[in-house]
Specification:
This protein is α/β, with parallel strands linked by helices. Helix content is 28%, strand content 25%. It has helices at residues 3-12, 46-58, 79-84, 86-97, 115-121, 173-188, 202-219; strands at residues 16-18, 24-28, 62-66, 101-104, 124-127, 132-135, 142-143, 145-149, 156-160, 222-225, 240-242, 251-258, 261-271, 277-283, 289-291. Strands 2, 3, 4, 7, 12, 13, 14 and 15 form an 8-stranded mixed β-sheet that branches. Strands 1-8-9-10-11 form a 5-stranded mixed β-sheet. A two-stranded antiparallel sheet has the order 5-6. The protein is globular, with a radius of gyration of 18 Å.
Length: 292
């Protein structure tokens, strides 16, 4: 099964959410929340991510995660991830309780497509601040894709993770998980990067993006993914966008959807003239905002 068929299959029964001025969405991807060790690439940006979550929660946004939220290739258990990042899961649970949270699975958290896994691992979490177990996402479904659609015009955004562009990260994901967990993870500690990773290998990244752009053009659909970790906005020539990731060296990126207006946003740490630090939200460049 090629990339085209894998993408078509993902969107075949995808839930459709309303796209209108009354519904604001924020799209994050590739958080790769880890277990707090030196391999946890999310840890150094957690404060930026929490600041962004609070901003969007207080302004009524609906949170949509486009896969690879938790790093479940390098880590065999989700329990230490939930414990280390309990503040994050506490905020996400507030979105979910108010029906403002939707989750898509990616290649690094593909196990979330199984209802039995979600029942065991996503129903609750241990809150370290209150020292008790609290509801997390009871009854949640993780989707392969989601569609945002404006009823009047039919304008749509097609959301998925993007791993469908690679055979090793989709159909053969158990093989790739084994290699990452037991081969590339230890080698990465001595500077050898995983050549199959779209986030770490430039050639693999380009190949994945070319296939995703090709699908979007062929079907004339505005496609939003993560996976490659490279933030990107659509253009007149290409109806493809990418949220970026939450594991950039000094920032996290996301896409805001306000009605039919899309904005690529960066959250980063800056300093006042007196030396005190603060978290800044920045809309990226002139091409960082587009209308469908």
């Amino acid at each position: 099964m090629g990339c085209r068929r894998r993408l078509n299959k993902s969107f075949k029964n995808a839930p459709v959410l309303p796209l209108s001025s009354a519904n604001n969405y924020v799209l994050f991807s590739d958080c790769h929340r880890g277990n707090g060790t030196h391999n946890d690439n999310f840890l150094h940006n957690e404060h930026l991510y929490i600041a962004a979550l609070r901003y969007y929660y207080n302004r009524g946004f609906t949170y949509i995660e486009l896969g690879d939220g938790d790093e479940l290739w390098e880590n065999q258990s989700m329990e230490p991830i939930k414990e280390i990042h309990s503040d994050v899961f506490g905020l996400l649970s507030r979105f979910y309780k108010e029906n403002r949270l939707y989750m898509i699975y990616g290649n690094h958290d593909m196990v979330k497509k199984y209802p039995s896994f979600c029942k065991r691992k996503c129903d609750s979490y241990y809150c370290t601040s209150s020292q008790c177990t609290r509801p997390l996402f009871p009854g949640i479904t993780f989707y392969p894709a989601i569609i945002l659609r404006e009823a009047a015009s039919g304008k749509s955004l097609y959301l998925t993770h993007g791993h469908q562009a690679s055979l090793m990260n989709s159909t053969l994901w158990p093989v790739n998980r084994f290699l990452v967990r037991y081969v590339w993870k230890p080698l990465e500690q001595v500077g050898i990067l995983d050549p199959t990773s779209a986030a770490k290998n430039y050639t693999t990244k380009q190949r994945s993006e070319t296939r995703l752009v090709s699908w979007a053009k062929e079907y004339n659909r505005t496609l939003v993914t993560g996976h490659t970790h490279r933030p990107m906005m659509c253009t007149e020539q290409s109806p493809y966008l990418n949220t970026g990731s939450c594991v950039h060296p000094y920032c996290v990126t996301c896409i805001e959807v306000r009605g039919c207006t899309l904005t690529l946003v960066k959250w980063y740490m800056d300093a006042h003239d007196n030396g005190s630090l603060y978290v800044e939200r920045e809309e990226l460049a002139e091409d960082g905002k587009r209308c469908l």
